[in-house]
């Protein structure tokens, strides 16, 4: 039991939006994106996060819109490093949980998420794509991720978690995000 608690504790504090040092002796394991064909039609109660309920999402919409609708339920949730619930959320936790709820498994850390799917030019970005940023970190690596919620008329809006405002919607036209932007990727 102590070992299980220790593993859960380590997992919680090693997965974040910020980059962390990797152990020299750790084995590298490949993570996969797993998409089950019926994932969007399922409304399993074991995927609920407290009062956030994936079964409340309109399943007649596309996978991307379903994931976006679920992510939007977290808007206004405070920032919590390593968080994945309505009690606190970090950027990669928001994306990870929004996809995981519909049986699409992504890595937990933003820089690892940036290795999945394929790169998409900004003029081809669609709802559900992921935007990656380098936000003034010492290692100059990807350390922030956002989920595209709208992409029309050259205006791209994305939902993400910030340390100051928690889970919010921002625009890629905002100077800070425009200058920190690295790439967009499609995993769906």
Kindly provide the radius of gyration, computed on alpha-carbon positions and rounded to a whole number of angstroms. Answer: 16 Å
Q: What is the CATH topology of the domain at 61-188?
A: endopeptidase fold (from Nostoc punctiforme)
Helix percentage: 10-25%
Low-confidence sequence ranges: 4-16, 18-51
Order of helices and strands: HHEEHHEEEEEHE
Class derived from helix and strand content:
alpha+beta
- By CATH reckoning, the class of the domain at 61-188 would read Alpha Beta
Number of strands: 8
Keywords: Hydrolase, Protease, Signal, Thiol protease
Protein name: NlpC/P60 domain-containing protein
InterPro entries: Murein_DD/LD_carboxypeptidase, NLP_P60_dom, Papain-like_cys_pep_sf
Organism: Snuella lapsa
Structure write-up:
The structure is a single chain. This protein has 188 residues and is α+β, with helices and mostly antiparallel strands. It contains five helices and eight strands. The strands form two sheets. Strands 3-8-4-5-6-7 form a six-stranded antiparallel β-sheet. The chain has a two-stranded antiparallel sheet with strand order 1-2. About 25% of the residues have low confidence. This is NlpC/P60 domain-containing protein. Keywords: Hydrolase, Protease, Signal, Thiol protease. InterPro entries: Murein_DD/LD_carboxypeptidase, NLP_P60_dom, Papain-like_cys_pep_sf.
């Amino acid at each position: 039991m102590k070992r299980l608690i220790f593993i859960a504790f380590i997992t919680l504090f090693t997965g974040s939006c910020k980059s962390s040092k990797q152990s020299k002796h750790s084995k590298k394991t490949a993570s996969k994106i797993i998409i089950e064909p019926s994932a969007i039609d399922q409304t399993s109660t074991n995927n609920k996060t407290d009062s956030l309920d994936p079964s409340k999402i309109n399943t007649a919409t596309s996978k991307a819109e379903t994931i976006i609708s679920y992510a939007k339920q977290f808007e206004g949730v405070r920032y919590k490093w390593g968080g994945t619930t309505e009690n606190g959320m970090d950027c990669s936790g928001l994306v990870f949980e929004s996809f995981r709820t519909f049986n699409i498994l992504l890595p937990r850390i933003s820089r690892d998420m940036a290795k999945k799917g394929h790169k998409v030019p900004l003029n081809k970005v669609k709802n559900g794509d992921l935007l990656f940023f380098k936000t003034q970190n010492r290692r100059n690596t990807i350390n922030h991720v956002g989920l595209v919620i709208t992409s029309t008329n050259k205006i791209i809006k994305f939902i993400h978690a910030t340390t100051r405002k928690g889970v919010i919607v921002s625009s890629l036209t905002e100077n800070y995000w425009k200058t920190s932007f690295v790439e967009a990727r499609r995993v769906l």
